[in-house]
Amino acid sequence: MALSLEEARRELQERQGLGARYDALQAPHADLALARLGAAYFARKLNEMSDADLALPSRVAGWSRRHVVAHVAYQARGLARLVEAARQGRGAERLEEPEAQIEEVDFGASLPAHALRYLFHHAQIHLNVEWRDLQDVGWRASIESLQGRLVPIRETPWIRARAIWQAAVQLDNGASSHHFPQALSQRLGAKAGVDALSS
């Protein structure tokens, strides 16, 4: 018999003991699972490509695969800053120099292949650490982004899940929406239906 996500989480916590850190009880666990699964899927598709393959066109007009990887990495950094602001009790995201000058997709796409791959992996790890270290009160916060938008922190895993699964397809090296988890496909389909009704 398969365990539910909650049962599996409790079993893992019992095995790992008191010293390990876990997502807060009020965290959006299903969305975190979709985001983390999407990151693993994207990483697998990225690792299937040679360094030369990164220069090939993606499914995004005018972007190489390098651009897609840089975009996904910088999105993780931005979300990590929002979550960090919530964890620290600040009301707004901050971007310190010299990051402010280099967080551009074209710059990221110009990095050597090993640095671009590292950028993705490091940004994803940082985002995961921020999510894991966020207490229940932080998940209820809304933080002002650099663009002046108020972002509910509990939506950040869904924002990431949606973006990273779609970015895997945009790499154009065999990923397909047919590989999406059913829960993701259903939510994307429901959102598309709502968007069609409102247009």
From TrEMBL:
Positions of the Mycothiol-dependent maleylpyruvate isomerase metal-binding domain: 37-163
Gene3D superfamilies: dinb family like domain
Single annotated GO MF: metal ion binding
Swiss-Prot/TrEMBL keywords: Isomerase, Pyruvate
InterPro entries named in the record: DinB/YfiT-like, MDMPI_metal-binding
The protein's name in its UniProt record: Maleylpyruvate isomerase
